[in-house]
Amino acid sequence: MSRRFLKKVVCFLVILLLFMVINNTNLFMKQSAKEPSLLAHRGLAQTFEISNVKNDTCTAEMIHKPEHPFLENTILSMEAAFSKGADLVEFDIKPTKDGQFAVFHDWTLDCRTNVQGTPLDYTMDELKMVDIGYGYTYDNGKTFPFRGKGIGLMPSLDEVLSYFPEKSFLLHIKSNEAKEGEQLARVLATLPEAQLSLLSVYGGDEPIAALKAKLPSLRVMSKETMKSCLIPYILVGWTGYVPDACENTQLHLPEKIAPFLWGWSGKFISRMEKSNTRVIVVAGDGGFSEGFDSANDLERLPANYNGWIWTNRIDTIAPLIQNNKIE
Predict the structure, then answer these.
(1) Could you tell me which residue ranges the GP-PDE domain spans (predicted)?
(2) Angle at the Cα of 232 (from 230 to 234), degrees rounded to 5?
């Protein structure tokens, strides 16, 4: 191998490296005046120490001393979240005995209500009689501040969509049952196109694939859709190319992973938004719905970040964003 040839190879590699750096740096980007958008997880809800949460943890039994009267996944909590500044509210759905969807988080009713079993064991009318505030306590069971106050507060999906026809929501299918995706598709297919465009759905691979097959225009997300977008992007994204699998979807990016993506944050977000894909950054490694919930959390975001932020404390974070606390 000649010295001249080696020199050409080195030159090529240097030029390629410079291209990769310049094409993905944010240093020369025009700063956007757009504020970050806020996703309120479960609306305005009671809080708890998320570092203590495990798969079988009953979070209602470990809440902080209440600072407000709202319970997660209720119309009142969603309304409060929007009034505080949420751009999007996330909520969980579970199928009921009579073929509807109840808005409720837990796999079973045992933890935070006065009945046992799952939502699938009850009709929606029966779930309306359940006290969803029954199990909440902040002092190891000495007091139950919401007991008796949650009767009638568990909404159906139909109620939420009827009450907020012009609001944006992220629906969470908790299971990996394809039939739940098909059931949800039947519900959403009845909505006006304008309202449907305000919704997105995430969940297990099977229900999300079934839902997308029925409603191709709907923005959805699952582990499979994330992988099909991000793996090829990691391979070729340095060129600025966005794979087709990244179009019209949603990405929930843990803050520990996001910085390793080409063009993070400004160029990456711009590329995805041009493909009609929403980029939401979640705290930590993405486990147990960690959010950016304090001023200290916001300091970890990139300078001039203007994507979406996942928060469990919309009441705390919205005022900070409005006062330009991300610099």
Answers:
(1) 36-321
(2) 65
- Give the residue ranges of DSSP H helices in 25-116: 75-84
The residue to which tokens 């039947």 are assigned: 186
Question: Cβ distance 91 to 172 under 8 Å?
Answer: yes
pLDDT of residue 105: 94
- Of 207, 255, 249, which Cα lies nearest the Cα of 230? 249
* Cis upstream peptide for 265 (omega within 30°): yes
pLDDT at residue number 264? 96
What does the pLDDT read at residue 2? Answer: 77
Task: Extract the residue ranges of the chain whose pLDDT is less than 70.
Answer: 1, 31-33, 288, 325-327
Q: If DSSP states are collapsed to H, E and C, what string results for 220-241?
A: EECHHHHHHHHHHHHHHHHHCC
How many contiguous H segments (helices) and E segments (strands) does the chain have?
11, 9
Residue-by-residue DSSP string for 9-25: HHHHHHHHHHHHHHHH-
Separation of alpha carbons 115 and 96, rounded Å: 15
pLDDT at residue 18, as a whole number: 80
Q: pLDDT value at position 33?
A: 67
- pLDDT score at 117: 97
What gap in Å lies between CA 324 and CA 140, rounded to an integer?
38
- CB within 8 Å of 182: residues ≥ 6 apart: 207, 210, 211, 214
Burial (0-12, 13-18, 19+ Cβ within 10 Å), 207: buried
Tokens of 271: 């590329």
∠ CA 6-7-10, nearest 5°, is 85
Q: What sign does the CA torsion over 207, 209, 211, 214 have?
A: negative
Tell which residue, 1, 168, 5, 186, has the closest CA to residue 90: 168
pLDDT in tens, 178-208: 999 999 999 999 999 999 999 999 999 999 9
